[in-house]
Amino acid sequence: MLPRSSEILTFGQRQRSSWVVFRIGVEIAKLRQQRGLTQTQLAAMLGTTASAISRIENGADITLKMLGRIAGTLRARVEIRLHADRRSS
Asked: Which of 31, 32, 79, 86 is 20 to 30 Å from 40 by CA-CA measure?
């Protein structure tokens, strides 16, 4: 089944999306380390595996639900901002 045209991302959009997911993983790793937790400890607190945490920290896709669970566990908050694309009219 082919995706609808509204679901097709340009190369630049995919690149930006990948960058955002990567940055989220970096921030999670940083915060986890600041809290003095290992990936194994965080995983146990979340009821998941250390390999799942590792994948997230290394840029794997993450759901908003999991992001919220991780933030809550790490005593952090999630902020999402939408900015108008300067090229759109």
From this structure: 79
Phi, psi of 84 (to 5 degrees): -65, 135
Provide long-range contacts, Cβ within 8 A and 24+ apart, for 29-32: 29/57, 31/74, 31/76, 32/57, 32/74
Stronger pLDDT, 19 or 44, i.e. the higher one: 44
CB 5 within 8 A of CB 43: no
Question: What pTM does this model have?
Answer: 0.76
Nearest of 79, 80, 71, 78 to residue 35 by alpha carbon: 71
* Arithmetic mean of pLDDT, 49-64: 96
